Amino acid sequence: MSERGALSLPPRRYSKLWLAFARTVERTAAGLGGRVFYRRWFLGPGRFRVREEVARVKALPIGLHGFCIVQLSDLHGGRFMGEGDLKHVIAAVLEQRPDVVVLTGDYITSRWQEVLGLMSELRKLEAPYGVFAIFGNHDYRGRNEHRIAELFRDAGIVVLRNQSVRIDTGNGTLGLVGLEDLEEAKLVDELSARAAVRPEDVEVVLCHNPNMAEELARPQCAAVLSGHTHGNQIDLPGFRHLGPEHAGERRQFGATAAITNVGLGVIGLPLRIGAPAEIVRLTLVAESV
Ligand SMILES: [Fe+2]
Ligand SMILES: [Fe+2]
What we know:
Blueprint: E1 6-7, H1 16-31, H2 34-42, E2 49-57, E3 68-72, H3 87-95, E4 100-104, H4 119-122, E5 131-134, H5 145-154, E6 157-159, E7 163-168, E8 173-178, E9 188-189, H6 190-194, E10 202-206, H7 213-216, E11 221-226, E12 250-253, E13 256-260, E14 278-286
Parallel strand pairs: 2-14, 3-4, 4-5, 5-6, 8-10, 10-11, 11-13
Antiparallel strand pairs: 1-9, 3-14, 7-8, 12-13
Bound molecules: fe (ii) ion (2 copies).
């Protein structure tokens, strides 16, 4: 933490040679039909998973018993994800009858326009208490994240940028906090983001990168929901050390469950091994005394 309330992690940068190699691999895979392959094998019915998670909360108000949050992450519009590819995923989200839907970043791969192909499906998302989103590191490419925010707003998706909303069920309030990305945002202001949350609220924090979940944990925070790691995407023992930390993990810091969503899209290759695409269904339940 560099100053009071400000969080950050050093952004990762790659050499020009590595980026040229990665782009060539991506272009070749796309030319060989990578997008159709990915949609059929990883996003079709029965090909992705609905991961059930439960957060046990002390003295949970009755209105929040069984409150259901469905989380989507790392869609990565681009060469391997476009128009219509999320059809079955969005249907599965709606089937869960969530109280709230949250999207935890990385809507694009390299250019903001890559989100355009996703909008017809994302527009279908609905939930009684709303659909909310935060940005991931990829979404700041070219500093055009405001364009994604405008598209989301038109689709009824509220982007939380170091902000929170209080969701009043009539008998208990959920404070939903959305942070900017720890690596690429100009400022991640935790204090401002949490300012509206009251001490009696049950809090859930959205933070794309899972690496500071422990710092975000506090007694009233039931969960920190992240993405970013893709579960290593190609999760083979010899390669795990190359991937980001906390891939697909669930960790517990006191009262706070830190849940890392494995995501829906891909980077580099249209392939997942040992890390199937997923949506996370988080249910709040009262901790039995
Ligand atoms: Fe990602
Ligand atoms: Fe990311």
